[in-house]
Specification:
The complex is a heterodimer. Chain A is of the alpha/beta class. Chain A has helices at residues 18-26, 31-43, 45-54, 56-64, 72-87, 95-104, 117-127, 156-169, 186-190, 202-211; strands spanning 3-6, 108-116, 131-135, 137-140, 143-148, 177-180, 194-198, 215-216. The longest helix of chain A has 16 residues, at 72-87. Chain A starts with a strand and ends in a 9-residue tail after the last strand. In chain B, the strands form five sheets. A seven-stranded mixed sheet of chain B has the order 1-4-19-14-16-17-18, covered by helices on one side. A six-stranded mixed sheet of chain B has the order 7-6-5-10-11-12, sandwiched between helices. Chain B has a three-stranded parallel sheet with strand order 13-20-15. The radius of gyration of chain B is 22 Å and the shape is globular. The chains are: A alpha/beta, B alpha/beta.
């Protein structure tokens, strides 16, 4: 047995981590509250951009701080909505096929993502993934504190989590596959025997060409699909 | 015995021979007495190709005329050969475009509008929109692409239909739309004798389940050669599957043959024997060699990619698959056949820049083996041109370079699997797992990549040659590790290679230069 590890945002869906958060901020019951929250989020924009350049984990922490104060129940409801309204419509043409072929090979399909675990639960059901390794938010008294639980799933941490998962399941990483769109996921791609760059950003594409990894464009479609 | 005009011998007055070494042309001095086998001069093309097409579909072999098979409202599936035929691609209009125009007009006259046109790629790469447009012409492209003119997708499981299994256990599974159509019209361009016939539908439109039956080392070892359908186990298997398919399908085959007019100016000197060149051709050749030498590889590649061949159509036949193909093969061999007496101890050949599997891409190291031990070795009927255990000398840089878009699975095959083994039987055991890599399959389905099983097929393609030859020596390789991976030796010059070859050859060995392209088939007695 082996596993296929999939990054989600940018790899299987066109969205990135910011899209669901923006959806949440926009979807407040009171428009004034929405405006305030959005304004606050945008004011943090430059700092988040810097964080993204420095350390993806820091970026994630800043991003999910926006959820502070939300009730746990509401997060669950929002997660379903985010899946239906944000993720599902943005699924790449070839994403289901790529996952199904991994399942056909007998691989355990693992989503490994900086997105929220609670959101990916719906997505995993949709695409047939069996396991989720994703970010979780701290809850106190049924409300989100805006803080993230460890480990933060991002960048190099993904490689470590894949190693741990494979070791627990007894998988030989040489026979495992991994898929990502982002240069920040090079560590994760590097630990498996069969990495692939999917809809890669410019830096990852350059690296994939140099390392002769497969480069897949899941949005290309053929004439009939 | 008087020599055939396409066979000559090097004497003291002979000028150097000019052969391909990838995207370069090189001059080679061969020992006195070396036999040089050239392609036959191009046959006279048909004066009026459109008239010949109309005649063929109105006077088919062992079948009713096409018009008699048409009914208003019927569902028609037209399949056409892909980019691997011809090499290089034909100058416009491609003969497939001419046929499609005539056939589509006829279908329209009969009130048939449920028509789909499919490029029969099998496990080859998808043709790009620009390539399809070049092949079918602007008018048809605009009217049909992409909804009703598209590439076959052998991995679209929902669009494949199982038809049955032959008495040899070969499973026949074909494109579902083809199977469900009332009529399949196959439009073929027969470039070499292994093309056409039952191979058109039962390979061009099939999937992995069917390909496994014959694209394997056991079958390929029994092809002597695969350019001689009567002696090809591959052809025998394909025929069995084609016969089964035709029991279920209503197939009307249209096949065409082309002559050997592969090059126009400024490469037309390649169409003549060197000793017969005039001074302008000699000068033209020298200038071409120097120009190519001065250019970087990428520029040379781009120049050759722009060369389209001025092939002339020499025959059009239509009707029932086998009866049609018989006529096609006859016409093809009239062009290709060169009678040759006696086998060679040492067989020399240049490896050109193009093969069926790298149109608009670099001829990578795996394709070098396909050309050497595959196509060039197999260019015979009767006995192999090379004696058992003899030495092949080829000229190619063997650069460790692969076109990522077309040949991504080849890279892993060459660099991960070949270092483990060159044994085709052992590699065959690794095929299924490798060929199910989802990333490579998506590259095949959505990009321009060959299917991940294809590099294995390419290795098997050289299997009969590999079992037969003794050594292969590469002249002009820019590295030694790629030839080593392929099981080849290297030499710095043709002179050195010939000396090396003579170490294992009998005294006064028979040396033969197979002077291709264009194409020839040696009828060896």
């Amino acid at each position: 047995m082996s596993a296929s590890y999939f990054d989600v945002d940018g790899t299987l869906v066109r969205t990135n981590l910011i899209h669901p958060t923006l959806y949440y901020l926009r979807a407040q019951a009171n428009p004034i509250k929405s405006f305030k929250m959005l304004a606050r989020a945008f004011s943090r924009g430059p700092a988040m951009a810097l964080a993204e350049l420095r350390d993806r984990r820091l970026f994630n922490e800043m991003l999910y701080a926006s959820f502070e104060g939300m009730t746990e129940d509401r997060l669950r409801l929002f997660s379903e909505e985010i899946h239906e309204e944000v993720l599902k419509p943005q699924l790449y043409k070839g994403a289901r096929d790529l996952i199904q072929r991994s399942l056909d090979k007998g691989h355990e399909v693992v989503l490994i993502s900086g997105a929220l675990e609670v959101v990916l639960e719906h997505f995993a059901k949709e695409v047939g993934a069996q396991t989720i390794i994703a970010n979780r938010l701290e809850v106190k008294n049924h409300r989100l504190t805006g803080k993230m639980l460890r480990p933060i799933v991002a960048g190099p941490e993904k490689a470590l989590l894949i190693r741990q998962h494979a070791a627990e399941k007894g998988y030989d990483l040489n026979h495992c596959n991994a898929y990502s769109d982002s240069y920040s996921d090079v560590p994760m791609l590097s630990v498996v025997g069969h990495p692939a760059a999917v809809n890669p950003d410019a830096k990852l594409k350059q690296l994939a060409l140099a390392y002769q990894w497969p480069i897949v464009d899941l949005d290309a479609g053929n004439e009939r699909n | 015995m008087i020599n055939h005009p396409s066979v000559s011998y090097i004497d003291n007055h002979s000028v150097p021979r000019v052969i391909f070494a990838g995207t370069r042309l090189i001059e080679v001095d061969l020992p006195v007495g070396t036999r040089v086998i050239y392609p036959n001069p191009p046959l006279e093309p048909l004066k009026d190709v459109d008239a010949a097409i109309r005649y063929a579909i109105n006077h088919p072999h062992n079948a009713e005329p096409l018009y008699a098979r048409l009914k208003p409202g019927m569902k028609v599936f037209i399949a056409v050969d892909d980019i691997s035929l011809s090499l290089p691609p034909m100058k416009q209009p491609d003969v497939r475009e001419r046929i499609l125009h005539i056939v589509l007009a006829l279908l329209a006259d009969y009130g048939i509008d449920d028509i789909e046109i499919c490029v029969a790629t099998s496990f080859h790469r998808r043709m790009t929109a620009a390539e399809v447009r070049h092949m079918v012409g602007d008018k048809i492209f605009k009217a049909y692409w992409p909804d009703r003119l598209y590439n076959h997708d052998a991995e679209d499981k929902d669009n494949m239909e199982y038809l049955g299994t032959t008495d040899h256990g070969e499973e026949v599974e074909l494109n579902k739309r083809a199977v469900q159509s009332d009529l399949i019209i196959y439009v073929n361009l027969n470039f070499v004798p292994m093309d056409g016939g039952h191979k058109s539908v039962s390979v061009g439109l099939c999937g992995y389940r069917s390909l496994k039956a014959h694209h394997n080392p056991k079958v390929m070892r029994k092809c002597h050669s695969y350019m001689d359908p009567a002696s090809s186990e591959l052809n025998t298997s394909v025929e069995r599957m084609g016969k089964l398919a035709n029991k279920h399908l209503n197939v009307f085959t249209i096949e065409t043959t082309v002559n050997t007019k592969m090059f126009d100016d400024p490469l037309s000197f390649l169409m003549k024997q060197e000793d017969r060149w005039n001074s302008a051709e000699r000068f033209g050749c020298k200038a071409m060699i120097k120009t190519l030498d001065a250019l970087p590889q990428m520029a040379r590649q781009k120049i050759f990619e722009r060369v389209h061949a001025p092939y002339g159509v020499t025959g059009v036949n239509a009707g029932e698959t086998e009866a049609t193909h018989k006529k096609t093969l006859k016409r093809g061999f009239e062009q290709f056949s060169v009678p040759v007496q006696g086998q060679a101890d040492i067989l020399v050949s240049g490896i050109p820049y193009i093969s069926p599997y790298n149109v608009n891409a670099y001829l990578n190291p795996l394709l070098v083996t396909v050309m050497a031990e595959g196509y060039l070795f197999n260019m015979y009927r009767g006995k192999p041109l090379l004696k058992k255990g003899g030495t092949m000398i080829i000229t190619h840089p063997c650069t460790d370079y692969f076109d990522h878009a077309q040949h991504a699975p080849y890279i892993e095959f060459v660099h991960r699997l070949l270092p483990q083994t060159r044994d085709a039987m052992k590699l065959h055991h690794m095929e299924e797992d490798f060929a199910s890599n989802p990333a490579y399959i998506e590259m095949y389905r959505r990009g321009q990549a060959y299917h991940p099983a294809h590099p294995f097929f390419m290795w098997y393609w050289g299997e009969a040659g590999r079992q037969h030859r003794g050594r292969v020596i590469v002249v002009g390789a820019d590295n030694s590790y790629i030839p080593e991976l392929l099981g080849y030796e290297t030499a710095n010059s043709m002179h050195e290679a010939l000396e090396m070859a003579q170490d294992t050859a009998p005294p006064s060995p028979q040396i033969t230069l197979l002077h291709v392209p264009p194409i020839l088939i040696a009828d060896v007695t």
